[in-house]
Redox-sensing transcriptional repressor Rex
Amino acid sequence: MNMDQSKIPQATAKRLPLYYRFLKNLHASGKQRVSSAELSDAVKVDSATIRRDFSYFGALGKKGYGYNVNYLLSFFSKTLNQDEMTSVALIGVGNLGTAFLHYNFIKNNNTKISMAFDISENKIGTDVGGVPVYDLDELESRFPADIPVAILTVPAQAAQSITDRLVKLGIKGILNFTPARLNVPGHIRIHHIDLAVELQSLVYFLKHYSTEEKMV
Amino acid sequence: MNMDQSKIPQATAKRLPLYYRFLKNLHASGKQRVSSAELSDAVKVDSATIRRDFSYFGALGKKGYGYNVNYLLSFFSKTLNQDEMTSVALIGVGNLGTAFLHYNFIKNNNTKISMAFDISENKIGTDVGGVPVYDLDELESRFPADIPVAILTVPAQAAQSITDRLVKLGIKGILNFTPARLNVPGHIRIHHIDLAVELQSLVYFLKHYSTEEKMV
């Protein structure tokens, strides 16, 4: 497919990993085809949105047939670079960081936390979920050139200074779980997941919106 | 302001808690006005989006002056129901759940985790971050009628059955941190934060998008 990937809207791109996971399950259960209604029910995205998303990939379902599971799966697999492993570093092995290390994205084939850093003597030198924890003071000497992504699970007040160090080390993207808004050069991508904002936003939606129009 | 809240686009509504937090900080530091460029720099949302968002609230900045901090703050405070406390229950006191309990949204004035549930004997009967942990078997007898929101941090395979029980208890919204997609009646709102999908999505964006167009 010669499609220009950068033409896919960001909102669509955000849903790709979700579609991919569900299609893998479908495939594993031996299913050959799926309708946008079935997909919609499973991933909780309305079927008009699914049809529009899929049309960007040139995957056009047939009426009364639906989509070919194998075709979609191999397309998503390629698009999501499933055959290429991305190493990730985690900074901050508190409760949230520990949760990530134990989880370690076992359902993702293409991302793996390969090292973690902390300042606590109780944690330095241990393995958490099979991942070695190093001294944050050794970040510069330990950090390999082939890690493009870091997960930041440190206290908010430490977030910017550690980010500055990661930027010097050539990081390309940061998944920021701290409440801090990070300042980085324009070529670095930050995805910010602020747990307090997520909760406040849910409460706001409960008060102000009909729940028939769901978000993803 | 007689504006119909339900006319605010959901993407705008999602940014309200972010704006509100930053404006509180500005106000605390004695600032009287703020430009959309300053706001943009602080909250990492482009200023055209900020201006469009604010226009929905009838807050129209003046050229060369910007926005009045007090006005915005009192408007957001009212809109986000800052004077009304929402109690939240947390189900699943593992690493992720423990992180939430210690955090307990201290920066939110209007949301508070008031009780937690788990199945582990080591945790039942303890306080984590000042929040009592009860036996999940006692969910039906302990759960008060005035808790509209639950945070779900349980293993994926337990998510749907616990959700079914919460639905029977009259829950209105669930913040779902499990990889499971939950089936609920249409009047219940689910916000799903799938950590594996967030990581995969960041990796995808690093490979396919120019990083100058940031997401929030």
